[in-house]
Amino acid sequence: MSPGKPQLEQAFPSITTAGKNPTVRCILKGSVVSHHVLSWYRQIKGTEIQFLVSHRERSSPTYGDGIAHRFIPELLPLSNAFTLTIGNVEKADEGIYYCTIWFSNKYLFGEGTEIKVQG
After folding, report:
1. Closest by CA position to 75, among listed 67, 86, 84
2. Which is nearest to 27 in space by CA: 91, 60, 75, 89?
3. What is the DSSP letter of 13?
4. Which residue ranges in the chain fall short of pLDDT 70?
5. Who has the most CB within 10 Å: 21, 30, 40, 111?
6. 82 and 99 in contact (C-beta within 8 Å)?
């Protein structure tokens, strides 16, 4: 890692049950969360990575094509983190969720958090 390059930290895989509202958390190190456009992507096994939503402080989220508004991004400036809550999670939501920021004309990705839906 070069000095001054921000890093994104995501939690370990999380397992949830259908009908719940899991939250995926991403902590930004080496920069200030409110200075960036924050995005979430999802990789479902065997498919291409998919853009879900992006947002920044004091603006409305921008959703990807066909993405339901039950994917709720939130900025947490006090903990320099941002989250994605999935409302009424379904089996079809299973996959690896990646947080990203736009930095130096490219996207930096977190390591991903796996969502598994039981039941």
Report:
1. 84
2. 75
3. P
4. 1-3, 12-15, 18
5. 40
6. yes
Q: How far apart are CA 24 and CA 94, in angstroms?
A: 12
The whole-number pLDDT of residue 42 equals 96
Q: How far apart are CA 107 and CA 118, in angstroms?
A: 32
Token pair listed for 12? 């370990």
Total-model pTM: 0.90
Please name the residue that has the structure tokens 């989220």: 61
- From the list 38, 29, 22, the residue with the least C-alpha distance to 95 is 22
CB 28 within 8 A of CB 6: yes
How far apart are the C-alpha atoms of 82 and 61, rounded to whole Å?
A: 13
Instruction: Decide: 6 and 101 in contact? Cβ < 8 Å.
Output: yes
User: CA-to-CA distance for 108 and 99, rounded, in angstroms?
Assistant: 8
* Class in CATH terms, 7-118: mainly beta
- Residue 37 is encoded by which pair of tokens? 């456009």
Radius of gyration of the chain (CA): 14
